[in-house]
Design goal:
Blueprint: E1 15-17, H1 36-46, E2 50-52, H2 63-72, E3 76-84, H3 92-108, E4 113-118, H4 143-162, E5 166-169, H5 180-189, E6 193-197, H6 198-203, H7 208-215, E7 219-224, E8 226-227, H8 229-236, H9 242-247, E9 251-252, H10 261-270, E10 277-279, H11 293-307
Parallel strand pairs: 1-10, 2-3, 3-4, 4-5, 5-6, 6-7, 7-10
Antiparallel strand pairs: 8-9
Length: 308
């Protein structure tokens, strides 16, 4: 599949590729990890020159080194994700400092959007947040915890403004913000933008179309992906671990799952969304022989006519 970018690097579709599509992860037990050079080379070959930042240490921590690497592959970073505990007043200082440091780095390498997910806790010895491990989320937040969460999101908005970034809070399965009720509480209690992730909404039991309607005018970034509905249901009812489900191809090439991505994109178009999309389909590679590029290309073949 040939490259997608137009003349002089112009983005035709505003579609970025996530390193997660290549199985890249900061979890120690996630599977075989492809080196950054190969991921960036393949992303440049099939994409339109845009990626997301990936997990910590995928790109160099020093922004000057990261920029040199990106220039060599003729890629730009449009967004990056950070996970933080937002509901606990005791952790406010360290979490805000963590977000500020990541925002500074993202801005320095040219990103324009910070995608923020609210995790329930950090697990000792683990880099990935609880939200991706499939562990039970625990009890719902109290009113006081919600007040802390919304107040800290307001602080994060100021951090992003200082670094000239847009903020997009991502509702996702396993996080403290998942379904319509929590999303509505976020919208009422803050002015933050939203990152719409189709698959995570489906896994959490939400209807992406309804969420698009609920968040119309507030969507700042979109993750495009598709899922196996049976595996999604089993993850949602906790009969199957999330990590194991990803290994069983929970995420399907876009158009080959049950998330009805076409209707979601039609709803986004009707809502006037004109921002960036990211192909964000988490993948676990069992062996060095696995070739994720084929799945990426199948997704692109489905998506490009919809984005034209």
């Amino acid at each position: 599949m040939g490259g997608l970018r137009g003349g002089r690097g112009r983005s035709l579709y505003r579609l970025a590729l996530s390193p997660a599509c290549w199985g890249v992860s900061d979890a120690g037990d996630w599977g075989h990890q492809i080196d950054a050079e190969r991921v960036l080379s393949e992303a440049a070959a099939v994409g339109e020159g845009a990626i997301t930042a990936g997990p910590p240490r995928f790109l160099p921590d020093r922004s000057d080194q990261a920029k040199r690497l990106l220039r060599r592959h003729r890629l730009k970073v449009v967004a990056g994700q950070v996970h933080a505990i937002l509901h606990d007043h005791e952790t406010r200082g360290p979490e805000l400092a963590h977000i500020d440091g990541h925002a500074h780095w993202l801005s320095a390498i040219g990103a324009r959007t910070l995608v923020l997910s609210a995790i329930p806790e950090r697990i000792p010895g683990a880099v990935r947040p609880e939200a991706l491990t499939g562990r039970p989320r625990g009890e719902a937040l109290s009113n006081a915890q919600w007040a802390h969460l919304l107040h800290l999101i307001g602080s994060v908005e100021h951090v992003c403004a200082r670094h000239r970034l847009k903020l997009a809070v991502q509702p996702r399965f396993g996080s403290t913000i998942q379904g319509p009720a929590e999303i509505e509480r976020l919208l009422v209690g803050s002015e933050a933008g939203v990152c719409l992730d189709i698959a995570h909404l489906v896994i959490a039991g939400a209807d992406p179309i309804e969420v698009v309607e609920l968040t119309a005018g507030r969507i700042q970034h979109v993750h495009l992906n598709d899922v196996d509905l049976d595996l999604a249901r089993r993850v949602r009812d906790r009969s199957l671990d999330y990590v194991e489900a990803v290994g069983r191809n929970l995420y399907r090439p876009v158009g080959e799952g049950g998330a009805d991505v076409t209707r979601v994109m039609e709803a986004l178009r009707s809502a006037g969304y004109q921002g960036w999309y990211t192909l964000e389909q988490e993948t676990r590679l069992a062996t060095v022989q696995d070739r994720p590029l084929g799945r990426v290309s199948r997704s692109l073949e489905f998506l490009l006519p919809l984005l034209a």
